[in-house]
Amino acid sequence: MANRDSSSSTTAARETMDTLLEISRLLNTGLDSETLTICVRLVEQGVNPEALASVIRELRRETASLKAKEDTVEQ
Amino acid sequence: MAYFDKRAEKDLKKLIKCLTGFQEGSDNFTLSHEFALSNFRFHRYLAVDSHKVTRQLHGVCEKFAIHSQPHKHEVFKRLTDKFLNSPLLIDQDLMKSDAHYGILSILMLLSESPVSHHYKEQVSKPKTEEKDNFDWTSYLLEGIEIPSFLSSDEEWSNDEAASEPEDEVQDSGIHVNESDDTLVTTTLEHSEHVEQHAGKDWISNNVVVQYWHGDVEKHVFGGHPTSSLAKQWDLYLYEKQPFHQFGSKFTMTETQVVRETIWLLFGMSDMFVYKYTDNKCTCNADIQVSHLTPNALYSLLYYFARYGQMVYHLHQFIEEIITHSGNIDYKVSQTFQAFASSLSCFLQQFKSELCIIEKDIMKQDKNVSLSELKERIQPQLEVVATLYDIYNIGVNNSNGNSAVLLTAFYNTLLELQSNTVENTDRLKVCTVLSIWLTSTQPFINIIDEWISNGKLVDPAKEFIISRNEEIQTNSNEYWEKGYTIYGVSAQQSKLQQQQFTKDTPSESVGIPGFLEPILYSVISAGKSMDLVASLGRLTEKKLNLSEGDRISLFESFTKSLYGVWDIDESEDIDESSDSDDVVIDISQQQLTEVNLLLQHDAKLQSKQYTLSSKKSFSSGLPHELMDVFTDRPLDIQLVMHRCLYPHIIKKCNRASSHLVKLLKTEYHLLDYLAAMRYFYLMEAGDAMYDFYTDVFERLRLQEYWQDVTYLTNALQEAVHMHHSKHMSRLTVSVEPVSKTKRLPINALDVLTLHYKVPWPVNVVLNPECQQIYNAVFRLLLQIKRAKYCLEQLRFSDLTNVVSPSPKNCESENQHLVHRIYLIRVQLLHFVDCLHNYIMTRILHTTGWEFQQQLDTAVDLNQLLDVHTHYVKTIYERCLLNKKMGYVREAIIKVLNLALNFQKRWDGGLHTITEPILDKMEEEFKKCHYFLSKLFANTVKRGVFPHLELLAQSLQTSYMNATAHTKK
Known about the structure:
heterodimer; A: mainly alpha; B: mainly alpha; two-stranded parallel ribbon; two-stranded antiparallel sheet; elongated; cytoplasm (chain A); cytoskeleton (chain A); MZT1 (chain A); Mitotic-spindle organizing protein 1-like (chain A)
């Protein structure tokens, strides 16, 4: 009985995640399922959503500029 | 400060890895981590407000509606409602919690132009339930006959199938380069078993499924239990991980993957399984093979991707070389061209082997799995990896320097040769060796042309040596600066050229390792031949060549390598060992190996004859090389010492000795060297005596003598009698010197002899050498002047002027005169000793040694070395170098004393008083004592054995003088 409960809650959580992933795709956030899962966990653990969003934006920007620099050096 | 749960730490790290790709522990990762932590802890944002988020959600919905995107509007609304009414985590049942709004808030903050973004709804539903395979239709309709109707399959009628039975094909390939004939792209096979009823079914069964368009093979999941391994594994992951996407991967058959792998190794870039991004080969992450777990599949795919990428890059290099070869403005290095050509041959061979495997697959007689493919082509892949490493070092990181490529090859061969026990290693070594041999051809041809015709033909400027166009062949500096080694200054180049007799590290100047041992000889021979060509004497040399000498160096090399030249072998080895004494330093171990090889020769006789019929000189094919090295150990250094160096040395020796012979016979080098000794070193005593006595006499009489016309006339007259042929070349000039500390003995230092040496002898007798000859000439003049002055003193001159005086005065005078006589004799003895030492012990003996060395010199470099050594030796032994400055000073003092003494003698007895005489005696004694002691000590130490005679005579005379004074 307990197993059935846990499997049903897993299915429900998966569905929620699928829904969330669809919203993410619809809004064109560029987040993949893994990153999205991590974000959910972080928000659950009390991280401020706006702070998290700003960190994600900043890290993306820095990585892009770093990659652009590397490409320039290679050329 | 905001609260930050430590449990979130792990998630944060994961987030950074996902977003940036930085590895934990790297500087960038630490920076990112610190940045994120500080943002989470010290931010100014308010807590999430559900009303605000709801308003924003409405706003987005409205935006979609305004932009006429009702689908998005609906989907968004439905999804957000659904999301807010679902529990977020497994262990919670909360709905519309702060976390819900928080996560929606993040998504809206990260949203990037959702209106312009194309969206297609994807909802994956796991296929958890097995399909019911039971055929209920046939079960329920059992016994009821249903009339058959013409279906759409009728279009695929028997007529059509029967009409073109021979054209029906089994497609075996896809989207591959059509230009390449060897790549079997759409091989069509005639099927003899076409049944009459074959229609659409037959085609769909026999044509390769277009999996790249998403079509799945019917029988992709077989009946064997292992064929559902991937599915089982997927299901297991799905159960374990809530976010795992079940059944998201596209299933392919292993044969399809194997064939894509073969195409990858052909050098293709656009495929379904393998993709190229930024010139890096990656594997399609969304595929699976039914009987393999993803890990097993990807470990194999990435293994092949690595080699596929290498093959692809090698093909790109070949294409680039071919493209540039046609461009006149862009001169491609011939070595690179040769490398690309031999590389292409190797890859062609590799492709043909792959083709055989592909044909096996197409026949469907054999099963070829990925691991079987790996096992079959592993040796070739290892060769590819080795060649790619060489390409990377030699082409990618060499800035177009061909020498780096050849060095990379040579070093790889040296590394590989120790592992030639196994057959696979042997194949690798022989393949690398064969490609290397072809790649060395341009260098060897350049050397051949240079040492045969004196022309350094190097249009792409790839050879390590270049002609210095600023220096003409008839310049004095030609031999030293006429050619430079790339990346080395002229002076260093000269030094390097001198040092090549020893083993020098090749990395220092980028000289390929295999050329190091013979580079000295090659440079010497190349310059010699250039000089011979400039003299217009090249044709004579060519006429003297035998038939065997006319074949090219590379041809001789390959002939030797394949053992064709077995008849000349013993001769070659003898020659090489002779020349090795001079240039090549074969280690003891290598000599032992040569002996071992000679023992093998008897065994190989029969093999050599069979090989000689093949005559494959152009490039060594690996399997032929393997034949050659079946019985013998492969030692590349030994191969070079046996097969290449003897030929180069032979040609070099011939070229160098030809020039030396020309210089000695046609251009009278020996006569000019003799002239140097005659006039500068005053070996022509008769002629030079007339010249210098005339000048000395003028000096003694204090007449003007520095008139160049007078001096030249005097010299010409003196030389005219016995050495008339040198008259026109010999001149004398007066060059002012600094007047500091000038003693009377230095009066002749202004004289300089000039001898016009014609080209090409001026390469040997250059102005620097003449300067040294002049320095010796001036010293000789000083000694000869002192000697002459002392010899010219007449006793009568002194006695005649003695005035009548009282008897006691007379006895005093006689005593004084006696002392003057004594000092004259002592001075004369000293000067005579010195003169004899210089003229006989030094100049004559050293000259004799020089003559002997001159006869043994085989090339111009040696000849130059011998001459330079000779000039330096006489300079040192005449005590002219700086180290012996204090000795020379003492000698000059004595010589000057002799001149002063002569002056006073000429002035009469009254000019020589006892104090003056005492002073003279004292000075002479001091110098004499100093020199005799110094020379005696030097001789005792055995440093300068040639000083022995001088030391002995000075010692004796000093002892006699001391004994006399005591009496």
